[in-house]
Amino acid sequence: MPGFRALVLREGDEGVSAAVETVSEVDLPDGDVLVRVACSTLNYKDGMILGGIGRLVRNYPHVPGIDLAGVVEQSSHPEWEPGDEVVLTGWRVGETRWGGYAEKARVHGDWLVPVPGLFSMQDTMALGTAGFTAMLAIMALEEHGLEPDAGEVLVTGAAGGVGSVATTVLARLGYRVTASTGRPELGPYLQELGATTIIDRAELAARPERPLAREQFAAAIDSVGGVTLANLLSRIAYGGSVAAVGLAGGNRLETTVLPFLLRGVSLLGIDSVLCPAGPRRQAWSRLARDMEPERLEGMVSVHSLDELPALGRRILAGDVRGRAVIRI
Question: Of 223, 230, 221, nearest to 246 (Cα)?
Fold first, then answer.
């Protein structure tokens, strides 16, 4: 069997280490489609996996990378033929089975979607799980009645992957976006994406003094969780919604039921990992329609497999702006 390059994680006495190695196709997991990977991307979860945090990976050696885009090389699945360009996000790939930080990946064809619209494979990875999650959140808010004239929409962690895509798409759809960030130097970047107002994340980081604050936002997309989520729930206008997509600030939520009972606020959980095929394809179709490929250029940096260990540490420290594409 021919060998190929992959970033391999190994667990030792001093924790998890990462190195680019040559591995064989016989080591790949089961599946009915073999993909030659063109590119992948870096998400917060990838940073946790690269650092051995949270026991997301239980078996080593392991090839991480929760996203991939590439060309079908072999297929026994009825929907895919050699030469098809495909994208995969989620399905525990990169966690419980080998993922996209390799030149080849073997997966189940039901997990794949075609590269949509005018997107290139690199465009899909400029979006990746972060962009896909952002669109799922926007779709959920829309399904709960959000319209552009409803008022301001808050995006927390706005300079990160989910936040950057959410800010860009919401602005293009005509929403007034308030971007929350802990990096004030990125204000011009967020304004370029379409944010009309920028606030310091510290404004939302203090425990709410009252269970209900002034109605400030029509809706929100929150990637922080914890105290920030509790705080913004108290500021959502009557009938508004919050799409919860992350927990960078903690997984505990200490709040009251008053926003739900007195203002009819909805808290919407967004899961991008096991999202069914129908909504998954709809979200990618919406991204192809509502996210112009040229808008991705300003939020993307391109890196190699060898740079991933350092990038993983940076994303956990909140030091990665926008989206990092990994060219395989």
Answer: 223
- Containing H/E element for 217? strand 217-222
Per-residue confidence at 1, pLDDT binned at 50, 70, 90? low
**61 preceded by a cis bond (ω within 30 of 0):** yes
Q: Confidence band (pLDDT; 50, 70, 90) for 118?
A: confident
Q: Answer whether residue 131 shows pLDDT above 70.
A: yes
Tokens of 78: 């009825």
Of the pLDDT bands very low, low, confident and very high (cuts 50, 70, 90), residue 82 is: very high
Please give the Cα distance from 60 to 255 (Å, whole number).
39
Task: Evaluate if pTM is beyond 0.85.
Answer: yes
Its sign, for the CA torsion 237, 241, 247, 250, is: positive
The confidence band for 253, taking pLDDT boundaries of 50, 70 and 90, is very high
> Distance between CA 129 and CA 139 in Å, rounded?
15
Distances from the Cα of 194 to the Cα of 84, 189, 228, 298, angstroms: 34, 9, 22, 12
Separation of alpha carbons 78 and 36, rounded Å: 18
CB–CB of 97/72 below 8 Å? Answer: no
Gap between the Cα atoms of 20 and 180, Å rounded: 37
Q: What is the pLDDT of residues 291-313, one digit of tens each?
A: 987 888 878 899 999 999 999 99
Phi, psi dihedral angles at 202 (to 5 degrees): -60, -25
CA dihedral 101, 8, 51, 41 (to 10 degrees): -10
Kindly list the distances between the CA atom of residue 317 and the CA atoms of 57, 66, 167, 183, 314, in Å, as whole numbers in the listed order.
Answer: 20, 19, 21, 12, 5
